[in-house]
Design brief:
Layout: E1 16-20, H1 24-30, H2 35-56, E2 60-67, H3 75-91, H4 93-98, E3 101-106, H5 114-127, E4 133-141, H6 143-159, H7 170-175, E5 187-190, E6 209-212, H8 222-233
Parallel strand pairs: 1-2, 1-5, 2-4, 3-4, 5-6
Helix pairs in contact: 1-2, 2-3, 3-5
């Protein structure tokens, strides 16, 4: 079978793009700067990417901001990352709301400081009615833990006699995920040249197209996003239907 024609540039972008934002520390080290400066520049890349995604017409953008494994980093760096998260939720909320962006956070919130939990709740409540772009921020997030969360929900239902084991299917597991109403990502991008999922969206990314870019996250911009979208546009999405 002949290869499919690449999509034209006028084709619609994927509805949902997910990004593993990697390379802040390497960006800073290469420039002889402290790690915090790399994370600060990474936050600027978040701002630019959210703006570009909305302008391009992407409906859902999921960003891996802080994994459940990141707590193992030096305490000073964790404190810096939490401080940047506070800063982002406080300083960017008005602009996001003004630009019709809905903010959602997925992950284990109970493991976060109380003030961060309150900021998350405020951001979500303020932007709940916005429709231009859903910005989903994964914080204290792990894909395996998310699946365990869904499994425990089903186990509780089964123990109460609400369902039987034979009832459990993919849709029931999906209903127990952190954001079950969000469509699966068609495109998952990882920056910095690393080529692994790192426990990110393990269930949802089952059929996502993967694009690995050597650019470090602080240097990621609209051009890099459009380059990844162009790569996605040339892929033949088969969903396991045929091989070769």
């Amino acid at each position: 079978m002949a290869n499919p024609e690449p999509r034209m540039e006028s084709a619609l972008p994927p509805r949902h793009v997910a990004i593993i934002m990697d390379g802040n520390r390497r960006w800073a080290k290469a420039r002889g700067l402290p790690r915090l400066e790399g994370h600060r520049r990474g936050a600027e890349a978040v701002r630019a990417t959210v703006r570009a995604a909305a302008e391009i017409g992407i409906e859902y953008l999921t960003l891996f901001a802080f994994s459940s494994e990141n707590w193992r980093r030096p305490a000073e760096e964790v404190d810096d990352l939490m401080g940047l998260l506070r800063h982002y939720l406080r300083r960017e909320l008005a602009e996001l709301h003004r630009n019709d962006v809905r903010v959602r956070v997925v992950g284990d919130r109970e493991g976060l400081a109380r003030d961060i939990q309150a900021l998350i709740q405020q951001a979500e409540e303020t932007t709940r009615g916005n429709t231009r772009l859903d910005l989903i921020i994964a914080v204290n997030y792990g894909g395996q833990a998310e699946i365990v969360h869904a499994a425990r929900r089903l186990a509780g239902q089964a123990s109460r006699g609400e369902i039987s084991a034979e009832d459990i299917d993919e849709d029931m597991i999906r209903a127990g995920l952190y954001a079950p109403d969000v469509p699966d990502p068609e495109l998952l991008i990882r920056t910095s040249g690393e080529q692994r999922l790192s426990n990110f969206l393990l269930w949802q990314a089952a059929y996502a197209e993967l694009v690995f870019d050597d650019v470090l996250w602080p240097d990621f911009d609209r051009e890099a996003l459009e380059r990844a979208l162009a790569t996605y546009g040339c892929r033949d999405r088969r969903f396991g239907g045929h091989i070769g």
